[in-house]
């Protein structure tokens, strides 16, 4: 379980039956992007469009993310994008603690293989699952351990477009994060 090869790992994820989400998904969504990505982005869970496509952030929230990345001067093709849980929770409910726990070894392995120098946590679910913190409205734009940047989830920006400017400025910070503490490797 948990291959050291990113593509092998993606195949493992597509076959995964570690939690009940495997019973309701159409496709697991391992993540997208190059193995040598310097930046990683972590969302919450696939939605309906992602479940159909087997790829992350391809629906409305994804279109907004693409636009924001563009405005921030970042190239999506150079970023590894994934989620805390790799399968869609029915009705787009939040993933449970148990589902997050079952799926976390895959994310840890992805981080270990890619060794990014910046990891962007999109919204409260990844911020809580990885850093144990909550309250994106006040924490957004902050960098933890020289490695993690917290910002809004793109769906939250879609719901309130006045957040777009802050979202783009948060994303632009990823360009300056070069070293990374590698705290995630310990
Ligand atoms: N929302 C997420 O958190 N992840 C996706 O992949 C799509 C929508």
Topology:
Layout: H1 6-15, H2 21-24, E1 39-43, H3 48-53, H4 60-72, E2 79-83, H5 97-114, E3 118-122, H6 124-131, H7 136-139, E4 143-144, E5 148-151, H8 154-159, H9 164-173
Parallel strand pairs: 1-2, 1-3, 3-5
Antiparallel strand pairs: 4-5
The structure holds uracil (URA).
Uracil binds at residues 43-47, 50, 56-57, 59, 61, 83.
Write a compact overview of the structure shown.
The chain has one domain: Uracil-DNA Glycosylase, subunit E (3-Layer(aba) Sandwich), CATH 3.40.470.10. The chain has nine helices and five strands; from the N terminus they run ααβααβαβααββαα. It has helices at 6-15, 21-24, 48-53, 60-72, 97-114, 124-131, 136-139, 154-159, 164-173; strands spanning 39-43, 79-83, 118-122, 143-144, 148-151.
Description:
By secondary structure, this protein is of the alpha/beta class. The chain has one domain: 3-Layer(aba) Sandwich (Uracil-DNA Glycosylase, subunit E), CATH 3.40.470.10. Helices cover 42% and strands 11% of the residues. It contains nine helices and five strands. It has a five-stranded mixed β-sheet with strand order 2-1-3-5-4, sandwiched between helices. A hairpin with a 3-residue loop joins strand 4 and strand 5. Helix 4 packs across helix 9. The longest helix has 18 residues. The model has no long low-confidence stretch (mean pLDDT 95).
Shape designation: globular
Helix content: 40-55%
pLDDT < 50 runs, ≥5 residues = none
Please work out how many helical segments DSSP would assign: 9
Cα Rg: 15 Å
Distance between the termini: 20 Å
Share of β-strand residues? 5-15%
Largest sheet features: 5 strands, mixed
Bound molecules: uracil
Instruction: Give the CATH superfamily.
Output: Uracil-DNA glycosylase-like domain
Count structural domains. Answer: 1
Write the CATH fold name: Uracil-DNA Glycosylase, subunit E
**Overall CATH architecture:** 3-Layer(aba) Sandwich
Query: Class by helix and strand content?
Result: alpha/beta
Order of helices and strands: HHEHHEHEHHEEHH
Q: Report the top-level CATH class.
A: Alpha Beta
Query: How are the strands ordered across the major sheet?
Result: 2-1-3-5-4
């Amino acid at each position: 379980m948990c291959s050291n090869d990113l593509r092998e790992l993606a195949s493992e994820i597509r076959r995964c039956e570690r939690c009940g989400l495997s019973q309701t998904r159409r496709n697991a969504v391992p993540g997208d992007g190059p193995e040598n990505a310097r930046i990683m982005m972590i969302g919450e869970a696939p939605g309906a469009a992602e479940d159909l496509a087997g790829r992350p952030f391809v629906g409305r929230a994804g279109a907004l993310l693409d636009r924001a990345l563009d405005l921030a001067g970042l190239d999506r093709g150079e970023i590894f994008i994934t989620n805390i849980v790799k399968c869609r929770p029915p009705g787009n409910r939040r993933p449970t603690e148990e589902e997050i726990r079952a799926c976390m070894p895959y994310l840890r392995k992805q981080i270990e293989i890619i060794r990014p120098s910046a990891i962007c946590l999109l919204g409260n679910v990844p911020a809580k699952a990885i850093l144990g913190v909550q309250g994106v409205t006040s924490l957004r734009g902050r960098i933890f351990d020289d490695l993690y940047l917290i910002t809004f989830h793109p769906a939250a920006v879609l719901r309130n477009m006045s957040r777009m400017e802050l979202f783009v400025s948060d994303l632009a910070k990823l360009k300056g994060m070069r070293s990374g503490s590698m705290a995630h490797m310990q």
